[in-house]
User: Fold these one by one.
Assistant:
Number 1:
Amino acid sequence: MTEPSSAQPEASPSCCNVTANGSAHHEDEEKLPERKTEVKFADLEQPSCSNTPKKSSILRGFFSRSGRWKVFGDRKTDPGVMHTTGLILEERPSNLPQKSEEESARHRLLYEQMLEQAKKKDVKLEKERRKAHEDKKKAEEALAIISRTWNEEILPNWNSSFDTRKCRDLWWKGLPSKVRGKVWQLAIGNALNVSEELYNICCERAELRLNGIQETGETKEARYNREASVAQIQLDVSRTFPALGIFQEGGPYQHLLTKLLGAYACYRPDVGYVQSMSFIAAIFLLQMEPFPAFVAFSNLMNQPLQLAFFRLNKSQMTEYFVAFDLYFHQELPELHAHFDAMNLRPDIYIIDWVYTAFAKSLSLDVTCRVWDVFFRDGEEFLFKTALGILKMHEDLLLDMEFDVAVGFLRKLPADITGNELFRNIEVFMKTGGGAENGKGKKRFQQLHLEVHERLTSINGNKIDKSTIQEISEGLDGMKMSKSLSVFLADLLEGQ
Amino acid sequence: MSSAPHKKALLKVIILGDSGVGKTSLMNQFVDQRFSNQHKVTIGADFIMKDMLVDGRLVTMQIWDTAGQERFQSLGVAFYRGADCCVLAYDVTNSTSFKNLDPWRDEFLIQASPRDPEHFPFVLLGNKVDLAQDRAVSRKKAEAWCQTKTKMPYFEVSAKEAVNIDLAFQTIARAALARESQDTQDFPDFPAQVLLDCGNAKSSSFCSCQ
């Protein structure tokens, strides 16, 4: 933090003829030679100039013999400005004919012009650098204050403060990375009462499985499933956040992630390992220690939305798809109509978003910000985020054809920022304090409940044409995509 | 019957096979001519489009890449419907992925329930032939399997080194095109059209994704 201010004062006095100082380049040409520092280098291959920038190394290549050189400036004094300093050969090497007076003057002039331009550029860059540095410093200070508020005011009084206005406002702006792990743990809780002892037992079993040690009394089928899931975990871990390189072969988190997923498969054999879990577990491991990460992961997987998806419960998944479709229609009717006209069903993009809670689609930073509020507000927020993404790109999407739109949604632009996304989600935060708000808009949870009630009313019946007709009538009055209604029939038919 | 001669055909192709056999890589190599070790697990299903010429006719291939984990198959119906060709992929260095071809094929036929399933076009790709030293399934064995499945075309390919990819996809496109023009009514009736928004029903065709 203090480095620029301490470097600055000594910078100007110790600079030679080329400085960042605005007046330096107005100096008369005649004056310059007097101030030139003439240095002779016996051997230019010496490492003394090895750390000079590219230009000098190029020159060194050209003039490998000794000659008279001048050194402009002193690099050590102000690294921010003086990086164009180079070694310039004033005259030709002694074995070559000397330049004429006229040519020398012309070269000098050209050289001065080049130098001046470089100086101007340097000054500009330096200004920008300082500005960026100041902005960063300000942001860091603000963050330090926010971190202190979390650490000293909110976390010690969690129960009384987590739901206050102040805390909610701070929370919305994104948790500081230093407290994120702690806040997530508190927000998710441990309703399953996963103890460290249980965790250790699961880890031990997972280690045995991962090392291929056979358990006795295992049926052939169980063994096949076990091997399949172990192999699947190992394969997927290496395909989790590949760009980070830490979960891949030899990476520091490879074993931790494999162990967490293996332990979970032992803890919940009814769920097991399901593709996309690796993304969720990976983010927990990046934010907290292995045991709390396991607790958070297990409890998250036990939420209704996650249970429905990770156990591939098609009728429950369908309820979510229909509810989202209704919600989408309510909030963004124009885009909904466009999608529906193209037969673009919500499940095509929502599946990926729900399974990974956006970890695969948004950048790691933005994903964490979404998770901040997801753990506070629950599953509804994931659907609000989905709408936020759609709203943010509404104009673009309205002009897209089916294939372009699907391609876009399955691979979102990498430059979506948290602030921009949250501005777009904010609109949907206002809908309904209660079940419905003044405009008659319903909350996602309300819509989901209605869909659930209507769909379960026919539960237990064999699904055929007439029952689907019944569902259709049951859902009468709800606007559902024609595309989705076909899908609904497909999904329910397979029950 | 067949569509108008100048109409660009849209061919829907599904790639199925065990996790890790290289389905996404095959697709990327075909569409973008590149291979990366750094791709993420496919969740649900992904798709990519590519225009190509098949026997002088311009067609658009819509290739659906699916999740390889077995349990995701139950979601398959949503993606399989309307397919014109199904590509089965296995890894020549992994014999389990070869053994699982039968279940993948059967499951596809059950879920997509195409008309005349006996003649539905499949193409088999044996990927990773660049890893010759690790080979676990011989070409002969794969060819013998194909013979039992109404002479399914078979290609030994490498997504990594772009071996046989274009040739394989030409065959896939041709098979899909033949299917599409011979029977555009492959999936005539959906079990039921749950038309909630009856007032606005614009068209009678719900045939996927067009």
Note: Chain A touches chain B through 53 residues (CB under 8 Å).
Number 2:
Amino acid sequence: MSSDTITREQAYITYLLRLADDRLILGQRVSEWCGHGPVLEEDLALANMALDLIGHASALYGHAADIEGEGHDEDYFAYFRDDYEFTNLQLCELPKGDFAFTIARQFLFSSFSYFQYERLKKAKDEQFAGIIKKHLKEIKYHLRHSRDWVLRLGDGTEESHKRIQNAFDEIWMYVDELFYTDQIDELILADGNGADLISFKEEWKKLVEETLTEATLTVPDWDQFMMSGSRTGMHTEHLGHILAQMQFLRRSHPDADWK
Amino acid sequence: METQQQLDDFQARIDAGEKIEPKDWMPERYRQQLTRMGSQHAHSEIVGMLPEGNWIGRAPSLKRKLVLLAKVQDEAGHGLYLYSAIETLGESRANMIDQYLYGSAKYSSIFNYPTLSYADVCVIGWLVDGAAIVNQTKLAHCSYGPYARANLRICKEESFHKKQGYEMVAKMAEGIPAQRKMVQDAVNRFWWPTLMMFGPHDSDSPNSEELIKWQIKLNTNDELRQHFVDRVVMEAGAIGLTLPDHDLKFNEETGHWEMGEMPWDEFWNVVKGNGVMNRERMKARRNAHENGAWVREAAQAYARKKKLSREKAS
């Protein structure tokens, strides 16, 4: 995609879809815990986070549909696109793993989202800014909740320490993508609707490092090999299975009213 | 030892409509019966997350996915209120959970049926939550204060679930042929199991008399079931769904709908553990509990460490 072939409107839609896809796919993953949490309070908390994430995605898809103006709705983007059309981070689509993996991922994603949304809330598009402000409150809760658990697990027992350390080690090669930017970001940033990711990269890294250190964990190597490609449609094979599950009923009966 | 005077005084309080609170004197048997019934109620909320949770990933619109997630989350919340209410009787949550995962405590058999289509979760909202509301609305007036208040709170959320369930059932009933077929099939499968949620006939319900005497239960199983059927027949008729009971007929004299004989053999079979999903449900809950042990231990160890360092600092 080059900037001379893409309109500002297309860029904005792509920008919104990237945000929404992350949240839908992660929400779908987190919802897998429903009824299977380690303790009842976590069943509630995880269901609540999944609910927030999918709710955020739905609002962003809805806004993208409004801008697109082709009569689509939020469901169109969730249910009628294929793997290569999804632009969520690979980080979000990885299987839920054990509770430590779920927490490590949530902490990384929520802390990133927090900084990102703090910038997006100043967007020129008032409707978009309104959505962001509303969701930011929930993101703060996700960050607090997942950070508390990183501390508990890291500084809990020998087993929990080992598990959460493994989780961070395993997921580390997916974190660089959080800060991926291309022409889409540049265009949207120039329009006053984007978040300058680089502006908070150091601040985010500091929060992550301080949290891991407080949790008596070792910060994995930032300079190791890092995955890339999600934002332009490169995914692990896990995504296809998420979509197969998520979309099957809707696609089996596309003419039915399911709202 | 309980004296007759204590028992009589207790009964007088119940008969006067007073609420019994945790620190009040109560017969040991009252405590036992409430603990048994209330913890069973709590376990049901928790196991109840599984059949509906089965469709969160596949819900056919984002709106319906959110509705379902919120509902399952509410059920976890109901489990929490109920465990907390019953803990005031002196039984710990950990013990109650042990009793149902590894002991003889039961949960509602309705959750041992599988959810085969998305319509099932809608019908569960309409019928199963509808039946639960009939029970819980009564329990909200029962004699034990904490349990009554927990039920009152639950009822508010359950009514919302039932409304959402019926709304989607109605939508499917007037939808495309595939939706109509799905929803009628779900009603066919869930009708009798829902009616059996009210428990055996009064004549086969050994605990009922004592529970009613103490106002732990306010109505008999058959009374509650009749109340439910009278309402649902109207609701089904309004949206053109057929209830799978050929003997269902209106009795002009009593003003009630009379039902055919329920398939009790199946009911007892499921109660004994032979339902399609009994083993799966228990396995899922045991796995969640056992796989979560290290998480609970970590949280406790961390809390201990923090407490210790706070004590050192002060």
Note: Strands of chain B lie at 249-251, 256-258.
